[in-house]
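Below is a filled-in request sheet from our internal design queue. Each sheet records the structural input a requester submitted and the sequence that came back. We keep these sheets so that new team members can see what a complete request looks like end to end.

REQUESTER: design group, bay 2
PRIORITY: normal
MODE: inverse folding
CHAIN LENGTH: 283
BACKBONE (tokenized):
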């Protein structure tokens, strides 16, 4: 795509192995990809294959199921969480993958708040990232106050940036303009669509996090691409999409009626439509 590189997140919902997905992404038109990570994953194999195909390994998404332990876990639980994130940082560094995306919290209906011990624990991860030359892109999710805490506390670190999830902004952050807060630190995107918060009273829940193809939800993409331009982002536009519906939801069902090739072709068309709305493309 002229002056705008695009990437797509590997997903277990696509029904084929990671290397097959990487090749299919390339064939569809994408320039790169990102993956999740867990201990033992053959990241070096994926990176070698990406290099062979001239595909960009844009980022690794760190595990997030222990995010609450970073703030509120006992010492043993927290140490396990810290070491898992540090290992992920080192996997990125060892394989020349520049960005680790990290959630900073997991959970709903929780009255607890960020605390000093949590920041100290994240500080150990940030220190490792600084030492190894990896950037951590903290992502907007539920628990927005936790994101605010880490972004403020580590504002001076050259290893800390922001990952903007367009769907999370609508269904978890009440469509608050998070680029106005963290756009100067933006280093990664997770672009996707949804229908906003379903509950009339404003209760947020993960079932609203649909990760639809752009233009299949309620997002104002002219406004969002303008904001992306306004903060000067010129990096890879990365899409994080779900082919399957959430429990008791059916919005994604139509994707399952497509072959994977058809779905990826449609995803690339939507990516092109978004890129065409941008002025500050990668040069």
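RETURNED SEQUENCE:
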């Amino acid at each position: 795509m002229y002056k705008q590189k695009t990437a797509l997140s590997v997903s277990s919902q696509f029904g084929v192995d990671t290397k097959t997905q990487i090749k299919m992404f390339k064939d569809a038109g994408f320039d790169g990809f990102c993956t999740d990570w867990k201990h033992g994953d053959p990241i070096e194999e994926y990176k070698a294959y990406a290099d062979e195909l001239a595909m960009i390994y844009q980022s690794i998404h760190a595990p997030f199921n222990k995010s609450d332990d970073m703030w509120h876990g006992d010492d043993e639980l927290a140490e396990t969480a810290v070491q898992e994130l540090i290992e992920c940082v080192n996997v990125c560094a060892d394989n020349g993958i520049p960005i680790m995306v990290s959630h900073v919290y997991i959970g709903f209906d929780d009255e607890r708040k960020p605390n000093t011990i949590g920041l100290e624990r994240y500080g150990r991860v940030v220190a490792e990232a600084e030492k190894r030359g990896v950037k951590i892109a903290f992502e907007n999710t539920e628990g927005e106050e936790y994101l605010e805490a880490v972004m403020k506390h580590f504002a001076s670190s050259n290893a800390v940036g922001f990952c903007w999830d367009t769907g999370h902004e609508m269904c978890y952050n009440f469509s608050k303009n998070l680029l106005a807060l963290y756009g100067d630190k933006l280093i990664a995107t997770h672009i996707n669509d949804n229908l906003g918060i379903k509950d009339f009273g404003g209760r947020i829940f993960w079932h609203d996090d649909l990760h639809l193809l752009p233009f299949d939800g309620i997002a104002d993409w002219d406004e969002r691409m303008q904001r992306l331009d306004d903060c000067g982002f010129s990096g890879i536009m990365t899409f994080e999409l779900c082919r399957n519906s959430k429990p008791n939801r059916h919005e994604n069902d139509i994707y399952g009626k497509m072959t994977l090739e058809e779905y990826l072709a449609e995803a690339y068309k939507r990516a092109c439509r978004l890129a065409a709305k941008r002025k500050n493309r990668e040069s």
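SHEET NOTES:
- The mean pLDDT is 97.
- Residues 6-276 form a domain with the TIM Barrel fold (CATH 3.20.20.150).
FILED BY: M.R.
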